[in-house]
Amino acid sequence: MKKISPVSRSGRFARGPGADVAQFTESVSFDWRLWRHDILGSLAHAAMLRKIGVLSKTEAGAIARGFKTIAREIEAGKFRWQAGLEDVHMNIEAELTRRVPAGAKLHTARSRNDQVTLDMRLWLRDEITALLGEIAGLQRALVSLGEKNSDVLIPGYTHLQRAQPVYLAHHLLAYVEMLERDCERLWDCHSRVNVCPLGSGAIAGSTLPLDRVLVAKLLGFVDTSGKPQLTQNSMDAVSDRDFAVEFCAAGALLAVHLSRLAEDVILWASAEFNFIKIADAYTTGSSLMPQKKNPDIAELTRGKTGRVFGNLISLLTLLKGLPMTYNRDLQEDKERVFDTADTVRATTRLMTAMLRNTKVNRAACAAAASDPALLATDLADYLVRKGMPFRQAHHAVGAVVALAEKTGKPLNQFTLAELQSMDKAFGRDALGVFNLQRAMAKRNLTGAPGTKEVAKQLARWREQLS
Ligand code: ARG
Q: Mean of the pLDDT values across residues 327-343?
């Protein structure tokens, strides 16, 4: 690498780095995607330099126009990124300075150390907003699927064993709740991303009279009441990546939720469950077995969780041994943050599309939900209503279940005499417990899968997500 960048090498270096060093240290191959936010940050910095008299009106105007052309070229894919210029910041500034001599004044009282964390914060802010939109889309898809099948009952499972009947909508709304907590966490993270570090310089601010508040306002670093949010310690500001860790942590938990949903979808789409049918366009075939229809979107969603966890651990490990303040190690944060953002956004979007193209097999669900064993607990509750202590009721019904298993007779097919031979407390109305509709009508505690309660929850989410 012969060419000496107008911005990267100071006067003390006689030569630029060798090709292998340049290749090892460059980051433009991946941080180029920060270009839009880099230019936004530079425009705000230039406006501030103009206000404090470092740039003349003409110079500031020329710089703004220069950035406009550069942005257009990048957008059109015509910009030539040079690895020799290390990163996105120096590529853009070098090109600006080549065209606009006043560009050489732009780096006044600014370092790439505060510039790069500014860019990351601006980029993440947009990314979080976009991700929140995707999550809301998935929540809406889950609510729609529940609404379209609002009368469908399935067995609820614990230990993957049939437990008690629930509305399919209740099961789907469990994911809506998880995703809502993900949104809350991302919003909370957003409040710490949304703090302006510019003006921190390399480590110790600047001797020049910068207007940090102006820059923060121009870039929208304000809280909900419009108060500018500025970092309060220059050393912390240039080395803090907590906001990136928080994003990756929130992303990891979102990935857990998506993976669990994926697992349910995979089970439900199997011949063994057969609760749902995913549209052909959202499945793939097998190159060998002609009959196969595989739920690859759900499987990859589950599979990609690993890399999202890995990104979080990588970031934490990256930070744990760093002495104050900026260290080049921090350049390694980008690919981890980008990968988490890309992965959770894509999986959320694809899971949404897949669910929007999934049909519920009502007959199979009804068959599974009609298993009378699902209402064994209701039979115990029946005895409790007659005054029996629950432990004793559990024991009595357990004996009925054992007999049912031994004789191969479904729980709801016993005669009153047979029931009473097990326990005298069973009355004429005992078998009424096995009426599924009535059983569902009884489950109306807040948060329970009762008929009225599930309808109420569906309506609440429909309203909240509209
Ligand atoms: N590409 C660098 C990064 O991502 C930018 C900051 C470099 N600063 C420095 N003093 N070398 O961290």
A: 98
